[in-house]
Amino acid sequence: MKYHIKTFGCAMNYSDSERVASVLERIGYELGDDEKSADIIIYNTCQIKQKAEDKLFGLRKQIAALKTANKNLKVTVTGCMVRSSSTQKDHKIDDILKRMPEVDFVFRIEDVAKLPDLLKTVDPLLTFTDDIEDGTLENYFKINPKKTSNFAVFVPISNGCDKFCTYCIVPFTRGREASRDFNEILEECKKHVLEGALEITLVGQTVNSYGLSFNDKKSGKFVEFGLSPFAALLREIDKLYELGLRRLRFTSPHPRDFFDEVILAMSELRTICPYVHMPVQAGDDRVLRRMNRNYKTAEYKDIMNKLKKAIPDISISTDIIVGFCGETEEEFTNTLNMYREMEWDFCFNNRYSPRKGTYSDKKLEDSVSPQEKARRWHELNSLVKEISNRKHKAFINKNVEVLVEQQIGQHCIGRSRENKEVHFQSGRKLLGQLANVRVTNSGDWHLDGELI
Ligand code: SF4
Q1: pLDDT of residue 67
Q2: Distance between CA 101 and CA 385 in Å, rounded?
Q3: Residue 452 Cα, ligand 1 centroid: separation in angstroms?
């Protein structure tokens, strides 16, 4: 039996998909070449971006055609759009099942170990090579991921979110934040490094809130790590340099918990890459308050300025939502001004659209017209492009270390420590290796270079 996973969204979702693949392989499925050859298709969804949501609902016809061609095909959805694990046979079904009758069942990612049971519910004749009975969160973390790459791996350190931004459904779908055991994370990281990982990316909805959630504080398990258990974790993982680890990244931090201890660790540790992606979402305090982001622009700027001082070559990027409920022209202009001041290297720029069940959907008016949202999006995007281009030009004639992630013939593509995409040619096979490259040219979104 074959499986195919389609992942939308962030690094956390890609990491989750590796755990889903692992469960499926444990019960006897193999990775298929594409959707057509699959006996089960899993859509791992994102709800932050409207585009990802639209894409899923836009797949109805395609799924129906695949099911006509293969009567035994099972289709399931997981990720941030799913609120409760259920099948079409249940009394109380998840909203996705109502909107997409072609989908057989949905499951919360924390319930991934329940996949065999859910599959058997929709097809009692299925038999598996192994059964996984317990679907607790702890088991979710303990599932050994089916890695898509040996040299660059994702390691989840927490799941869920306590922040309750008014536009976001994640705290309701993934639940309250829970941090993974400190030693269990270290063991997983060590295992990956011994198997050849050069780069580890720690992932969590608010990754730097590690050990600080309501549940973590109640359990008292992280008290020994002081103000920032996340900084303590970075310091321990950095010791894996001796075993071969060369790069440590994390995504995405929240400004609320970006303590000086983290900045200090970043400036001192050998493996930490000089790159931070920290969503700001808006450059105006009134908008941030309506979003319930729980920080002011001055606090965000303070963190960024400290980071730039401690790590002068750092690259920074962010997420911004334009056209949030009630956003005035003046508030939007403040965002543009903050963008000019911060000079982020890159920005994921999104137009606000209400997500069903969120506070902003229920209580705030989506008052900015689609045309105006589009205008603001384009205006911000031009600025993003202009600054990205300028930042890229500053790399010309510099040497960067690139971890090669793709090689097609002689064409290599990889990322520098600053997270810049770098293209260069090599007659040697370099996939999964570090290469020193001299930057010769730059574009809006990537750098070109020559192997040194
Ligand atoms: S920090 Fe806000 S946007 Fe991010 S996952 Fe939590 S609630 Fe959603």
Answers
A1: 93
A2: 41
A3: 42
Nearest CA to 330 out of 360, 369, 286, 289 is that of 286
Whole-number pLDDT of residue 50: 63
**CB of 180 closer than 6 angstroms to any ligand 1 atom:** no
170 lines ligand 1 (CB under 6 A): yes
Contact criterion met (CB below 8 Å) for 391 and 345: yes
Q: Is 163 in the pocket of ligand 1 (CB under 6 A)?
A: yes
Please give the C-alpha separations between residue 108 and each of 40, 105, 135, 206, 248, in angstroms, as whole numbers: 17, 10, 10, 19, 28
The answer to whether the beta carbons of residues 364 and 290 sit under 8 Å apart is: yes
Mind listing the pLDDT tens digit for each residue in 299-345?
999 999 999 999 999 999 999 999 999 999 999 999 999 999 999 99
- Ligand 1: which residue has its CA nearest to atom 1? 163
List, for the chain, all residue ranges whose pLDDT scores fall below the cut of 50: 136-137
Cα atoms in the 13 Å half-sphere on the side-chain side of 363 = 9
Question: Domains (ranges, CATH) in the chain?
Answer: 2-137 (3.40.50.12160), 149-273 (3.30.750.210), 275-393 (3.30.750.200), 399-451 (2.40.50.140)
SS3 sequence of 304-319: HHHHHHHCCCCEEEEE
Amino acid occupying residue 181: D
Ligand 1 pocket member 164 (CB < 6 A): yes
Share of the chain above pLDDT 70, in %: 96
Three-state secondary structure call for residue 228: coil
Cβ of 169 less than 6 Å from ligand 1? no
Please tell me the distance between residue 279's alpha carbon and the centre of ligand 1 in angstroms.
10
Q: Is 205 in the pocket of ligand 1 (CB under 6 A)?
A: yes
With beta carbons less than 8 A apart as the criterion, state whether 258 and 208 touch. Answer: yes
Q: How far is the CA of 72 from the centre of ligand 1 (A)?
A: 37
Residue entry with tokens 């008290």: 223
Whose C-alpha lies nearest to ligand 1, atom 4?
A: 205
Q: Measuring from atom 8 of ligand 1, which residue has the nearest CA?
A: 168
CA distance linking residue 181 with residue 158, whole number of Å: 9
Query: Which is it for strands 158-159 and 411-416: parallel, antiparallel or unpaired?
Result: unpaired
